[in-house]
Write a structure and sequence with these properties.
With 344 residues, the chain is α+β, with helices and mostly antiparallel strands. A hairpin with a 4-residue loop joins strand 5 and strand 6. Helix 1 crosses helix 4 and helix 11 crosses helix 12.
Length: 344
């Protein structure tokens, strides 16, 4: 659609005002927000035309208007000015200059930063584990009935899983189990570990005492690791958004965010509208919700995503600027040709 320069300016001011206040915006509110002189009557006429184009909606509670889903897409595609303020950029650069660790550590720190700085809910979907291989496995005893499985993959991803035994297991059995599994499973793709476990089960049974207990516990631990590669931060931030004041609706959203399978079904369901923003970002609108994602390359063709989930009324320019910066930092540390962070 072709809007005039004045219509674009009025629409941009309305979107950004509504983003800040969550209150319908009227013509008188817009007058001081514009850098040109225009009467309230003229603004009302322009708002009526923008509504006719489907970019605005009029609420029943006031004479003001709010952006429609189509309006937000138009704003993101045509009017949004992406920039990270100097204070935020300086703070983030200082934080990352002191950060060292695995890909998992850095992506989760980035996701936590996103939730804190946007006051929305964030999620990180880490690189596909099917392309990662097992580098090292450790079984660390906590007591005679509990141990921690530590799995390290070829991308530097580290995962911990606590598991319990019904009966006592000796330190010698844990040591024998660890040595055998490392010898037989090092270099095996993560998504092939369970099948490989089954292939070595006869040798495992002949070598390791309490083999059934250890075998079942460890298969369970690794299956849990292989099926979970997303983390959510800032769930409580949804409580501050007026769009999610309906508690059953909020509880349903939280349930979806907690389950990666449900989340992918929700994000990929029919009726959603997806918009590509540049080469890195994507906007998905799902009813009253929006998901903004930013892809990052962690090397060896492994890609992950940072995501921000919130109402359609979110500060897109700031969200995307933060996501771009954080994605670039991850790629700088772990992308092709990089050695990645090292633990201090």
């Amino acid at each position: 659609m072709d809007l005039t320069k004045r219509q674009n300016a009025i629409f941009k001011a309305l979107v950004e005002q509504f983003t800040c206040t969550a209150e319908p915006v009227g013509s008188k509110t817009l007058i001081p927000l514009l850098d040109f002189s225009v009467s309230s009557a003229t603004i009302r006429n322009e708002l009526a035309l923008l509504e006719k184009e489907g970019l605005l909606e009029k609420t029943h509670l006031s004479s003001g208007r709010i952006p429609s889903s189509k309006g937000y897409r138009y704003y993101v595609e045509n009017l949004m000015e992406i920039s990270l303020d100097e204070k935020s950029e300086a703070l983030l650069r200082q934080m990352f200059s002191k950060r060292h660790g695995s890909l998992e550590d850095i992506t989760r720190i980035s996701c936590s930063i996103l939730a804190e700085m946007t006051h929305l809910t964030s999620m990180v979907i880490e690189p596909e584990q099917s392309r990662q291989t097992l580098v090292q496995l450790s079984l660390i005893p906590v007591n005679t009935r509990q141990a921690v499985a530590v799995v390290i993959t070829s991308s530097g991803h580290t995962e911990h899983r606590m598991f319990s035994f019904d009966d006592n297991v000796s330190l010698e059995d844990l040591k024998t189990c660890t040595n055998l599994l490392n010898e037989r499973l090092k270099g095996v793709p993560i998504d092939g570990l369970v099948d490989q476990f089954k292939a070595i089960q006869p040798e495992f049974a002949a070598t390791v005492g309490r083999n059934e207990v250890l075998f079942e516990a460890f298969v369970s631990a690794v299956m849990g690791f292989a099926s979970q590669n997303s983390t959510v931060y800032g769930r409580a931030n949804m409580l501050a958004q007026p769009e999610f004041a309906d508690m059953p609706k909020l509880e349903e959203l939280m349930r979806i965010l907690e389950n990666e399978r449900l989340f992918h079904e929700w994000a990929g369901s029919e009726g959603n509208v997806s918009t590509t923003i540049g080469s890195r970002n994507k906007l998905i609108q799902i009813g009253d919700c929006s998901i903004v994602s930013a892809a990052f390359n962690s090397g060896a063709d492994e890609k992950g995503q940072l995501m921000v989930i919130g109402p359609n009324r979110m500060p897109y320019a700031r969200v995307i600027a933060l996501m771009d910066f954080l994605s670039e930092q991850i790629e700088h540390m772990f992308g092709p040709g990089q050695k990645g962070g090292q633990d201090e």
